[in-house]
Write a structure and sequence with these properties.
Length: 470
């Protein structure tokens, strides 16, 4: 996920149905039995798990521009062709993120034993400007907020390594507010390096945005700031802050990772053509690129896999919806979002024909339902979806004023009804963007539930008799 994810700010309005679906466009009586069949097939199918397993285990980390990302594009396209979808590769120019040397040592600190250093666990952020191969050595200054950094001012920041020691709020995450916790902390990953650079800092480090306790640094995107930018493990941020409170701390930092030259990559776009309104499109989607530390299983191989599963289930059940269902595996969500920007540009004239868009990019945990940026007048039409998904608790619809996903945000801004699956994300950020984003974090039955939620919603939207109010 990107900084300032929409999920951190949604306002909650649980749908209540006082009135029946619009009498102008009643849901066809056979739609609900079709949705039940889709649900039940999804809850016993292993296709999605096989897809995410291939992406994560066999192809592996898929940073935009990498050979693995290209292999994933070709793999997903071929799988969708096997399902007899009309598949297009839509071009996206992306930089190729290449991770190289990343190391940090405290070389001076209070109480230091002679001729020793302390290793710090660090990883470069997207947006990093590399250090020289020899690295740089500078004093560390710690800030716990943007205000604290401003109060330190140019005199105390220039030439130093700024460390933003801002905690990820694990209590919020444990209580089901992981998106909010992420949003608060990720502001420093996204914008901290620029604010430090503005005051002349030599480099900027942030406390990793994540909730785990195994001294893992979590990478992610940061706005390019013209200085080296990295994340240290939460434990190391605390360690450095405690030492800095006692006296001077000096660090040697080497971060040589960077974006290399732009290369051509692709969004994979596969259409299961509608029977009555093929020009009207319901999108099901996740992003195919991933960060490189883990294998991109929960972020977001899972999202791509369940979108593929929607098409697979409809084929398996021999169902052709009235509108086109479009599977999209987005490229470059993590490192700039060039895939969704390219799609919005290339399809600008077709926005009105996009009936709705669904995205999954909050892991593979048990789904509670959907976050939705839709006109509340559309809610009664979604009642059959909620009834069908209630059997496993995926029947909530939270109304949001912002896009529930970053890849469908341009569509949402254009007025396309936008849905994101609302997963149980209590542990998601323990692994997110770290080396621990691996296939074992996915519980197969929970992935099936996600597939069921996406497929049932997509099939309902693609078969509604009338338009969704916008
Ligand atoms: Zn993601």
């Amino acid at each position: 996920m990107r900084p300032l994810i929409a999920v951190c700010t949604f306002t909650i309005a649980v749908a209540v149905f006082a009135q029946p679906p619009s009498s102008d466009h009643p849901a066809p009586p056979d739609l609900k039995s079709e949705l039940l069949a889709v649900r039940d097939a999804a809850l016993t199918d292993d296709y999605a798990y096989q897809q995410v397993a291939h992406l994560a285990d066999n192809i592996g980390p898929r940073p935009a521009g990498s050979p693995q990302a290209q292999a994933a594009v070709e793999y997903v396209a071929e799988e969708l062709r096997k399902l007899k979808l009309d598949v297009k590769l839509e071009e996206v120019r992306v930089p190729h993120w290449v991770r190289r040397v990343e190391s940090a040592e405290l070389v001076e600190y209070p109480g230091q034993a002679s001729q020793t250093q302390q290793k710090i666990f660090v990883t470069a952020l997207g947006g990093n400007t590399p250090t020289s191969a020899a690295g740089l050595t500078a004093d560390v200054v710690v800030a716990r907020s943007f205000d604290e950094l401003q109060a330190l001012g140019h005199a105390k920041v220039a030439g130093r390594i700024v460390l933003f020691d801002v905690s990820f709020d694990k209590q919020k995450a444990a209580a089901g507010l992981a998106g909010e916790a992420y949003g608060e902390a990720v502001a420093y990953r996204g914008n901290g390096p620029r604010s430090a650079a503005d005051l002349g800092a030599a480099a900027c480090l942030v406390r990793s945005v994540g909730g785990a306790d195994y001294r893992l640094p979590h990478t992610g995107f940061s706005q390019p700031a013209g200085i080296p930018a990295g994340a240290v493990s939460a434990e190391d941020a605390g360690l450095i802050a405690r030492l800095a409170a006692q006296g001077n701390v000096r660090m040697h930092l080497t971060l040589t990772s960077q974006n290399e030259a732009d290369v051509t990559s692709y969004n994979v776009v596969g259409d299961l053509r509608g029977s009555e309104h093929p020009e009207q499109v319901v999108i099901v989607s996740g992003h195919l690129d991933s960060w490189d530390l883990g294998t991109g299983a929960i972020d977001d191989g899972a999202g791509v896999a369940i979108a593929m599963e929607t098409a697979q289930l409809l084929r398996q059940l021999n169902l052709q919806p009235r509108r086109t269902i479009r599977v999209i595996a987005w490229m470059d969500e993590e490192n700039g979002g060039r895939g969704h920007d390219a799609y919005a540009k290339d399809h600008a004239s077709e926005m009105a024909r996009h009936f709705a868009a669904i995205e999954s990019d909050l892991g593979a945990g048990h789904p509670f339902g959907f976050e939705a940026k839709i006109n509340p007048d559309a809610l009664p039409l979604l009642k059959p979806v909620q009834e069908v998904l209630q059997s496993f608790g995926a029947n909530v619809i939270h109304l949001s004023t912002r896009s529930p996903g970053s890849d469908i945000a341009p569509l949402a801004r254009a007025g396309v009804p936008a849905f994101g699956i609302l997963q149980d994300s209590r542990t998601y950020f323990n692994y997110h963007h770290s080396a621990a984003d691996t296939l074992d974090k996915i519980v197969p039955q929970e992935l099936r539930e996600n597939a069921a939620a996406m497929a049932v919603l997509a099939d309902a939207l693609a078969n509604l008799p009338g338009p969704l109010p916008r």
